């Protein structure tokens, strides 16, 4: 309660009224672009909040106070529980400001004192709202998995595309080492010219979320080593980032599986063709079949094959869902750009450009970038900030249409 209100309460007992929040009113999505650029910029913390952002926070605060947010699918991404302390403070600050407004209507001298105290509360409210917006955005990207499968597949471009897959493979292995992740190559198909046609890598660790937005079509523009006339060729490779769900999230009945073992083939020294360590698992209801022979033990190959099967089934389950919330969830997990051209690696111009970012999406010194270190980490951070902003704008747009 405001200090001034407490002082005046003895002669104005009916002054203090509870604040009644208004429902969220529609506002132009175009006007929100300024807001999103302000409070979601990866390089500058905002100092000013406009009325549109305030109205959105008012709406969230109303949902929080009424305990109705738990049944509101659209703000499931906001996670008000994580911000409960800040929302409690906001409720108190808004009530204090409203009380001072009511108090200032009674007496000129009291109004002057109330205005000074109100300025302090409004300053505190602005600082609190900035913290709330940043926390809301941070929580929108927190749901991810501790295990993922990175799949890289050559596309248009022939041998050059397969050499590009090898470059991406080296970059992601370097990035995994930089992030101190555990990784395991679970499937790889090499070519005679030291390229890679397809590779799958299992990764695990606390920072696998920093691979979250690598999924999509990657394009390379460069002069191949075999090109005599110096012409620039364009080749592509597709990258898929598959979250590996737990056994609880995707339950598979053993009766639905056909498990076969065989002797490993390919490189591997004396161990190859001596034990039945290779495993192939077929999921009978869907017809999906996965195999693994990378390890010497049948048990480990079976576990990896099961993880891969679970991951594919999970992705198929997501693809079948068409609701607004499910599509937002796909974007949250980095699955929304799988079939889109997301990035170009231009060796002649020594740059890499991510097309999802309108600004700050170009990095120079391509050779250093391809080592998979701090530059790739910085790009992932910018992408995460940008995609969280887009998700929030989509939620706001949906709420806008509902309020009309």
Automatic annotation (TrEMBL):
GO terms for cellular component: cytoplasm. PROSITE patterns: RF_PROK_I. GO terms for molecular function: translation release factor activity. Keywords: Coiled coil, Methylation, Protein biosynthesis. It comes from the Eukaryota. SUPFAM superfamilies: Release factor. Pfam families: PCRF, RF-1. InterPro entries: PCRF, Pep_chain_release_fac_I, Pep_chain_release_fac_I_sf, Prokaryotic/Mito_RF. PANTHER family: LD18447P. This is Peptide chain release factor 1-like, mitochondrial.
